[in-house]
Amino acid sequence: MSSLQKTEHNVKSNDIKASQEPIELQVRNLAIEGVTEEPTSPTNITDAENISPPLPLLKLLSSGVSFLVAGINDGSLGALIPYMLSTYHISTSMISLIYFTTFLGWLVCALTNTHLTKLFPLGTLLAIGALIQVIPHTLRAWTPPFALYVVTFFMSGLGQAYQDSHANTFVSTVKGAHRWLGFIHACYGLGLLISPFVATSIAVKTQHENGKWMLFYLFPLGLSVTNLALVLVAFRDSVHLSQIIDQEGLSDPEREGRSRAAASEVKQMLKIRDLWVFCLFFFFYLGVCTTSGGWIVEFLVRVRHGELSEMGYVPSGSYGGIFLGRLLLAEPTHRYGERRMLLLYAGICFALQLVFWLVPNLISSIAMFSIMGFFLGPFFAAGVSVASKIFPKHLQPAALGMIFVMAQAGGAIFPSLIGVIASHAGVKVLPPIVAGLIVVMSVTWAFVPKVDEHRE
Description:
mainly alpha, Growth Hormone, Chain: A, 19 helices, 0% strand, transmembrane helix
């Protein structure tokens, strides 16, 4: 071999060795890393999976305040009806317009909810509902004409519908949802309990000044502003209009596609059999509550011969029972099964209603009415909790909105029906009709499907 060939051979050998050294170093480093690095422990993985995100307490508080505002709005109506009649010089039949316009607000929400969820995130929808509720209280405080006063109940109903339906949907997704649903609905019961006392005290002090009782609405106005501020702070991560901006950048075919998707979701929702079972249940449930609560004073005065000045506070006994029932019965209702426990509560309510009907004693009637409120308390939150496990997540806001509309329909139709019947047969027809509604409510709940028990 020539010297030139030997030189080339040595250069190639060195190049090969040099190229092999980094590979050997990499292999050694990987081997060292494989020895020194501790393998991931299955226990650590399990612990990481079991770590739950912290509860969004501020958001839950905001949801509770929204229901408190709704309860104060709804609870004041019965106490203020006599003052509405004297201020506006109207008959009792005109009061039905208030129930009707409130129902219309919920109906508009049910028709638009699916489309709005495509345009706005959760925080924006809640803020819209809270803002709408500020407007009617602002208008009412200055003694508007009766036509405008009636329209304000449409606005309050619409605002409540948007905020309450989406607050229900949000709360149903947190850990321990049954407890927190009980909490927010207890806040509604607290609003019902507080409102008659505040409204009555202000109305009594200003009874010699025509229309001054409407200063009461400054109280829910302040709470409505607080409600709006809490929504903007608690849900600030989803209060924006980015989806609207994205929508503006879409072409016409894409917008039509989204509209068709929203319409398709509505059709899909309406085909769910269980939706109509829940609608009927809430229809009769709210019919029981509003019918018994709306006519109890008249019944106690006309049939049980109680004093009007004293009987006016009796509805607060039922509202207090509803408040306590939603707080104290939420846990046992969830633990032993919503389906079983609500049937038990319905049986108890039916027995109490029979005593109310068949025992002609004033004190007994008041006691039975208040205790029945306690056992009726957990129905709403438990029903929403079960519904949230049955409906698909993307249909929940629209489905709950539809359910609440049917509930409001029951709350408007049955009190009006009692009024028509009572005008011919007397208010003594109240107890048997309420007993019948309790039976029908129980039957509809028996058709609610069973859901799998979930672990927390």
